[in-house]
């Protein structure tokens, strides 16, 4: 049989067509310097077996986006790309084994320990960057399904669009979930007076300067919630979470003003204050900051997964703001609502700038100058030099089902963050789920969880009694 160069050229062209360049954000989130994974935990009303989940993954999850059937490769120019491959679903499904005959409380503890274990493990680079862990032991709900997905595939906004595409309404599994009709319009687009413009420019310079310093040399104080340890992202973590009725948050908001995000930030401020107070590490002289993540696509509201792919806005489009944590002397008696009003004032000022719009252009410039590893180093230092990070998602408000099984609740964590403390916030079916991950051998997770509950309860009581 004669050798055909045209066939080689055709095969090479086909291979190149299957290689889709990774975005700068995605490249820097899958390096030896920083590798972030999203763990999305679905709590079901009953136990789901691996056969049902395999069919669901094969028929719903994988077809929803090409990234779920792609591996990371490089093209002829050495640029990291997504390469389409055949997926063997069974290689991605893991069924852990716990001790039999335990109580729901013990199973719940085993699940948290298991989440801590898999959070510290890297995903295999030889297959698409995701895993499904089917936990068949009933906790306080039923069983659980854990989606572990590389942040390089997409951010929370991208992945939540997958939930809207593949989950269904609990009362009618033939219907998709309804996309929320909301958008986040930053202050930079509201007031267009000259004075306001100069104020925004001033805030932009301040925010950008602080971000650059945190990404290089300026470090927060060490404290009871920040060890400052190198390699903290590889240490064991402890996970705690609590559910808050959205209606109660709206009651607080109606008394204090601001946004629901301001109320949640106020609760975070107060729980940090309480924990620092309990551990005797309270001081007004400490430098403490949150790295608050924003998704730029939320400015235009939620889009379906089809709209995102057609508009080429799938992936990672995240900006961040360095937000100071108010430090108050332990001797002072503080009104719990002070932390909410403080959060409102700080966030109003921080968002009143053009900084979030500059993130993507700056990342592209930094990628050209220093390459993906340079961007990864900058991102790593931004996390490591701040005290904690906060990221949030808005989920469906209606009851939902997965693979024909009713869902009780959901929450998520971001694994691999080089911090002793991280917060994730998600709204699901009328509830807000506030989850913390802490450095296990440094922060007292039980005490911090108690402070989290006390902070919310005190703020709610203070708001309800305010005239």
Automatic annotation (TrEMBL):
Bilayer topology: Single-pass membrane protein
Metabolic or biological pathway: Lipid metabolism; Glycerolipid metabolism; triacylglycerol biosynthesis
GO function terms (MF aspect): diacylglycerol O-acyltransferase activity; long-chain-alcohol O-fatty-acyltransferase activity
Compartments in which it is found: Cell membrane; Endoplasmic reticulum membrane
Residue ranges of every copy of the O-acyltransferase WSD1-like N-terminal domain listed in the record: 107-264
Keywords annotated in UniProt: Acyltransferase, Endoplasmic reticulum, Transferase
Name of protein: Uncharacterized protein
Residues in coiled coil: none
Any GO BP: triglyceride biosynthetic process
Signal peptide: none
């Amino acid at each position: 049989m004669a050798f055909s160069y045209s066939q080689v050229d055709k095969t090479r062209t086909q291979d190149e067509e299957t290689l889709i360049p990774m975005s700068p954000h995605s490249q820097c989130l899958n390096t030896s310097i920083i590798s972030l994974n999203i763990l999305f935990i679905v709590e079901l009303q009953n136990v789901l077996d691996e056969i049902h989940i395999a069919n669901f993954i094969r028929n719903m999850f994988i077809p929803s986006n090409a990234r779920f059937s792609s591996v990371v490769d490089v093209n002829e120019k050495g640029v990291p790309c997504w390469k389409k491959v055949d997926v063997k679903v069974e290689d991605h499904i893991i069924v852990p084994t716990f001790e039999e005959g335990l109580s729901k409380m013990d199973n719940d503890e085993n699940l948290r320990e298991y989440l801590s274990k898999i959070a510290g493990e890297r995903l295999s680079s030889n297959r698409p960057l995701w895993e499904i862990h089917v936990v068949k032991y009933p906790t306080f709900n039923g069983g659980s399904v854990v989606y572990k997905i590389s942040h390089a595939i997409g951010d929370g906004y991208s992945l939540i669009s997958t939930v809207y595409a593949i989950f269904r309404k609990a009362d009618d599994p033939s219907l998709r979930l309804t996309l929320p009709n909301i958008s986040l319009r930053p202050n930079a687009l509201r007031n267009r007076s000259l004075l306001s413009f100069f104020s925004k420019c001033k805030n932009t310079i301040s925010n950008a300067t602080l971000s650059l310093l945190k990404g290089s040399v300026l470090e927060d104080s060490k404290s009871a919630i920040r060890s400052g340890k190198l390699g903290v992202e590889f240490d064991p973590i402890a996970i705690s979470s609590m559910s808050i009725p959205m209606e109660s948050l709206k009651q607080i908001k109606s008394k204090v003003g601001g946004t629901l995000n301001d109320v949640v930030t106020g609760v975070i401020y107060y729980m940090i204050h309480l924990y620092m107070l309990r551990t005797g590490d309270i001081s007004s002289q400490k430098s403490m900051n949150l790295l608050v993540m924003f998704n730029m696509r939320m400015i235009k509201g939620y889009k379906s997964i089809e709209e995102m792919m057609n508009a080429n806005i799938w992936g990672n489009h995240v900006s961040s703001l360095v937000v100071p944590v108010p430090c108050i002397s332990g001797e002072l008696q503080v009104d719990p609502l002070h932390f909410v009003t403080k959060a409102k004032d700080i966030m109003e000022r921080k968002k009143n700038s053009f900084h979030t719009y500059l993130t993507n252009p700056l990342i592209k410039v930094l990628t050209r100058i220093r390459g993906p590893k340079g961007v990864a180093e900058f991102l790593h230092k931004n996390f490591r030099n701040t005290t904690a990070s906060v990221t949030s998602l808005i989920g469906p408000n209606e009851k939902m089902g997965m693979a024909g099984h009713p869902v009780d609740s959901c929450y998520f964590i971001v694994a691999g963050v080089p911090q002793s403390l991280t917060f994730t916030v998600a709204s699901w079916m009328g509830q807000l789920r506030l989850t913390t991950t802490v450095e296990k051998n440094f922060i007292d997770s039980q005490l911090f969880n108690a402070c989290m509950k006390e902070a919310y309860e005190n703020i709610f009581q203070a708001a309800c009694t305010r005239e």
